[in-house]
């Protein structure tokens, strides 16, 4: 867990006593994720359990396990944190299959193995105050609901997520890999500046969450 007494140039701009910091590593050095733009779920903040995320598992079931630790960036992405993370694979028709309603880029990272009660926090920087429509790239074996908060306050009512389960699928495990883009799952008002966005799993789980696109609305 991070020491709040350490350097916190970004976190000092946030309300309250949030100790997380924007994700960064050898590849991503962009600081807070920008709005308008794409907020990557796998880039949830650094800070650990109970600060930047809450997870009900004790091990990352994706990085380092499903995707063996082989020294590659994608297979080992955040493997020492407990949030399950994987990435889009087009080999063997895993994520490129006839039941996709959207086509993510190969190598797209996502948060998976989700359960009700779990959450992730992402530091964002809003370029200008205003209304924004939010779209979500995801898969969902059972449907369910998520919620979004900004600096601890609800952004919108609970958001119902459409199931991507398809009765025509002949490969049972691939029910978790039918990608869809839900457009305008919410239209929200955001203040200018740095804030912390929280995504919570409310019901069902069994979702893979890739990113949230924020687009300006007049």
Short recap of the structure:
With 218 residues, this protein is an all-beta fold.
Overall description:
The protein is mainly β and 218 residues long. It has one domain (11-217): Galactose-binding domain-like (Jelly Rolls, Sandwich). The chain has no helices and 15 strands. Strands 1, 3, 8, 10, 11, 12 and 14 form a seven-stranded mixed β-sheet that branches. A hairpin with a 2-residue loop joins strand 10 and strand 11. It is globular and about 50 Å long. The protein starts with 32 loop residues before the first strand and ends with a strand. The mean pLDDT is 94.
Tags for this model:
seven-stranded mixed β-sheet, globular, 218 residues, Jelly Rolls, mainly beta, 0% helix, 15 strands
- Put simply, the count of helices is 0
Low-pLDDT stretches: none
- The pLDDT mean sits at 94
Number of distinct beta strands? 15
Give the helices and strands as they follow along the chain: EEEEEEEEEEEEEEE
Fraction of helical residues: under 10%
**SSE-based structural type:** mainly beta
Oligomer: single chain
Fraction in beta strands: 35-45%
CA-based shape: globular
- Outline the biggest β-sheet: 7 strands, mixed
């Amino acid at each position: 867990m991070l020491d709040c007494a350490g350097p916190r140039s970004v976190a000092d701009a946030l309300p309250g006593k949030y100790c997380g910091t924007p994700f960064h590593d050898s590849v991503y050095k962009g600081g807070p994720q920008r709005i308008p733009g794409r907020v990557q779920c796998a880039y949830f903040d650094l800070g650990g359990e109970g600060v930047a995320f809450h997870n009900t598992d004790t091990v990352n079931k994706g990085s380092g396990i499903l995707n063996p630790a082989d020294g590659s960036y994608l297979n080992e992405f955040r493997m020492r944190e407990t949030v399950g993370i994987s990435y889009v694979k087009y080999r063997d028709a895993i994520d490129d299959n006839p039941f996709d309603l959207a086509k993510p880029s190969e190598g797209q990272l996502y948060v998976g193995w989700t359960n009700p009660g779990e959450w992730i926090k992402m530091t964002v920087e809003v370029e200008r105050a205003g209304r924004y429509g939010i779209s979500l790239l995801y898969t969902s074996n059972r449907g369910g609901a998520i919620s979004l908060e900004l600096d601890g306050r609800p952004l919108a009512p609970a958001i119902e997520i459409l199931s991507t389960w398809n009765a025509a699928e002949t490969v049972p495990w691939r029910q978790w890999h039918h990608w869809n883009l839900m457009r305008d799952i919410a239209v929200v008002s955001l203040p200018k500046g740095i804030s912390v966005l929280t995504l919570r799993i409310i019901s069902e789980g069994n979702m893979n969450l890739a990113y949230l696109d924020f687009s300006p609305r007049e």
